Amino acid sequence: MKLNNRISFNFLLINLFILCGISIFIGVVEGSVFINLLDMNSTQKSIILLYRLPRTLEALFIGASLGLSGSVLQIVLKNPLADGFTTGVASSAAFGAVLTICFGFSYFFIPISAVIFGVLGIFAVIFATKDTKDYTTLILAGIVLNIIATSFIGFFKYFFEESIGGIVFWLMGGFYNVSYQKVFVVLTVFVIFLSVFFRLSAVLDVFTFDTLTSSSMGINISFVKNITYTLSAVLVAVSVSFSGIIPFVGLIVPHISRAVCGYRSKQNLIVSSLFGGILAVWADILSRTLMPTSEELPIGILTSIIGGLFFFYLLVKRKKAMWYV
């Protein structure tokens, strides 16, 4: 059922914020060892404040960033299979991060390198498909770029064995080396870009029509596309630089968002961000609690299983009707 009136949407938002709060609470409490928040010693307080809380918040805002970028890319590309992973941005950003690690640069340069390669990746895909109006071709080009970038990562993994641990991290994803500084960076980028997309929401609504209709309304199609491509790529790249590749979050949550709140861009941006954050937090909770030992399961494995099944469902069951929920 579509939620079209303001009261229904506000009710949805309230429930999502409540679910978000519950997810954060469980993310802080749950782990390899259960901690009773009402009866903690100094060590447990340090675990909560210096590890679990920033980790949960980082997962929340990175998931929100991935959900937001996926929602924007699906609107602009008019393709329900578009997200930071299928367009090749995530793998390109991970390749940039791996280059920085292998050549021994300071950790400070990892996010910068990831952003540069992520943006270069999406514009390489756009350039390769500029002569076609079929957006499906762009997704195919993104998947090819994904394969190429992953192959190069494997190449560096083979020749730089001393860096193999860090490289595997970028391939599988996870929230390990967390800090409040990282949380602040991800939150700041997310809030700024969400504000920009909000200002563009009316234009994004027009993108649901064909290109001729959009152009006839006085919209500079090329300029808006380049802006949205760049900002979406930066969002994904910043997320990858801190968490590695977390596939399919940006693919799944826009579909859920459209199912519950319809097609208005501003509503989709908010709901996709919230669903993305909640999904990432729960993936992180499961990664810490599924294994019988204290070992953690990489988050990328969990999201790949969920996203892969969802991807297969879209391709097989929905076919040309995939865009319609």
User: Whole-number radius of gyration?
Assistant: 20 Å
CATH fourth-tier homologous superfamily = ABC transporter involved in vitamin B12 uptake, BtuC
Query: What is the rounded distance between the termini?
Result: 10 Å
Classify the helix fraction into a percent range.
Answer: over 70%
- What profile does the largest beta sheet have? none
Number of helices: 13
* CATH architectural label: Orthogonal Bundle
- The CATH topology comes to ABC transporter involved in vitamin B12 uptake, BtuC
Order of helices and strands: HHHHHHHHHHHHH
Mean pLDDT: 83
Write down the CATH class: Mainly Alpha
Strand content is under 5%
Shape: globular
Q: Low-confidence parts, pLDDT < 50 over ≥5 residues?
A: none
Task: Specify the structural class.
Answer: mainly alpha
Number of domains: 1
- The number of strands is 0
Features:
325 residues, mainly alpha, ABC transporter involved in vitamin B12 uptake, BtuC, 13 helices, 74% helix, 0% strand, globular
Describe this structure as you would to a colleague:
The protein is mainly α. It has helices at residues 6-29, 42-77, 89-102, 109-128, 135-159, 164-172, 180-199, 201-206, 211-216, 221-243, 249-261, 265-289, 299-318. The longest helix has 36 residues, at 42-77. The model has no long low-confidence stretch (mean pLDDT 83).
